[in-house]
Amino acid sequence: MANTEYDPAREKRISREVFVDAYTEEEQALCWYYYLENKINFPFQVLWENETVEVIGMEPDSEDAGSQVQLQVLYREGE
Asked: Among 5, 21, 64, 77, which residue's CB has the most CB atoms within a 10 Å radius?
């Protein structure tokens, strides 16, 4: 995965966009979930354990997962 250089302006913009009116950790987690759900274009391919896999969506339960985002991955044909 490519490393992205830290950009304070980008971090501030994302923070303002994502965390508008989010005060508790739970509210912030929900904000991240819905922000990512609207920004990520599924499906896409990634390299995982030296294999190309397809990310097909976000797990609906991710909105209750706190600081973790769970993705739906098509590991091998049909799996």
From this structure: 64
Give the 3-state secondary structure of residue 63. helix
Phi, psi angle pair for 44, to nearest 5°: -150, 160
Determine the pLDDT at residue 77: 65
Q: Are 16 and 35 within 8 A, CB to CB?
A: no
| pLDDT tens digit at each of 79 positions of the chain | 567 899 999 989 988 888 888 888 888 888 888 888 899 999 999 998 889 999 999 987 755 656 678 889 987 765 5
HSE of 48 in the Cβ direction (CA atoms, 13 Å)?
11
**Structural domain spans, the chain:** 8-74
Q: What's the start-to-end Cα distance of the chain, in Å?
A: 23
